[in-house]
Amino acid sequence: MRTRRGASRSQVYDPRQRWIAASIERERAPRWVVWWGVASRRAVPTWQGAAVAIVEGRDAGELWAAMNAVERRALGSADKIRGGGGGFGRDVR
Fold first, then answer.
1. Which of 36, 62, 67, 37 is nearest to 50 (CA)?
2. Angle at which helices 15-28 and 60-82 pack, to 10 degrees?
3. pTM for this one?
């Protein structure tokens, strides 16, 4: 099968890339929704008051790092407001 731009379906829907996206979303759910496109890696935090609306990365490592940075910022804010304790119930990698 060919797409409009001439790339074969197997190039566009790389099973390994889809597995990576699903793994990231499984690991980070329910705090994040992950969108993994042909040329984009994006995630949206689902908690109220997140410092950003969306994060992006060129690959899985960059996306993971961006997600971690947002979570660390949120945990720091929660610690300041509550005087400790964090907010997600799990360690941020």
1. 67
2. 10
3. 0.66
